[in-house]
Design a protein that fits this description.
Blueprint (H helix, E strand, L loop, with lengths): L5 E6 L4 E8 L4 E8 L5 H5 L7 E5 L3 E2 L4 E2 L3 E3 L2 E2 L11 E3 L2 E2 L8 E3 L1 H8 L2 E4 L3 H11 L2 E6 L16 H4 L5 E3 L7 E7 L4 H9 L2 E7 L13 E4 L10 H10 L6 E4 L1 H9 L3 E18 L4 E14 L7 E7 L5 E6 L4 E4 L14 H8 L1
Parallel strand pairs: 3-4, 4-9, 5-10, 9-12, 15-16, 15-17, 17-18, 18-23
Antiparallel strand pairs: 1-2, 1-13, 2-12, 3-13, 6-11, 7-8, 14-16, 19-20, 19-21, 21-22, 22-23
Helix pairs in contact: 6-7
Length: 360
Amino acid sequence: MPGMTKKYLHLEDGTVLEGEAFGANNETLGEVVFSTGMTGYPESLTDPSFAGQILTFTYPLLGNYGVPKVVYQDKHLLKNFESERIWVQGVVVGTQIEYPSHHASFATFDNWLKQQKIPGVTGVDTRALTLNLREKGVMKGKLTNSGQKISWKTVDTPGTIKKVSHNQIISYLPKGKPARTIALLDCGVKHGIIRALLRQQYKVIRVPYDFDPLKLSERVDGVVCSNGPGDPKDWTETVAIIQNILKTDLPFVGICLGHQLLALAIGADTYKLPYGHRGLNQPCLDISTNKAYITSQNHGYAVNKKTLPQDFSEWFVNLNDGTNEGIKHKKKPIMSMQFHPEGCPGPFDTEWVFGMFGEL
């Protein structure tokens, strides 16, 4: 287009893709990943699990229903976003829509990224980019204002662990009398998880990733470990806390990163997937019932099911690639799942997991 400002996506393998700049005008660095979701970009971009990454959307039209106004359900709890800010380093799209159409639209996609100081590039062949990432695996990338090739020898992606977890203890009360009190280990929790727990009439006490909930002055009836970004083996403090929790009789549930951290805490191993699972339509089979569910996922690592100890069994399996999606203790109230049972964005087919947690 005449007069457009060019933006370039550089990949670690030497690929350089040219497009049109939108959003903020700064340059940025991150791990380039892709998501197959057709909707839910406000939720995806505010998901802390995407921290440190440049997100490519495979759906060709982004921004077509705009961005809603921020609405709080409670203090420190948003009703329509997954956190208070955008966490991705940058955005790559095929086409970004300048004139959205939706009754709840409050801002355009472009203006939202500008406000949040997040750069984006549009007009990129996202199909070719996604095929490249599928064949070679996710890799470092950089959004720049110049097409001149860069050196990757001294380039490293930003750290994310301490940035995504709230550093205070926060309590949330459901409508009506709380049925139980749940401690939530915040490794970058999506607000959708908190909203889902409140719908189950739990009082939720959100604690930082490096705080042992057993040290709370208030008695808790169970512990949930949240989603979060990065390599689970970097979260050593949280793994040690989970090991301490497992010495008690408290029910424990891990979600996404929390699933991987539970696996490490019990002596199993994790590994990096070539390009991860990021989207809203991942099919998973519940081995115990032989029922399949469509799930929302956002992760780049997986649990090696061959390393599970004998007192744990595989619970869910991914029907696309056979990777592990959940584990359960054979006797104790301990379980975890790789997918997001709260959806946000995505289906709510597996939200029954939160009710099952209460039954434990």
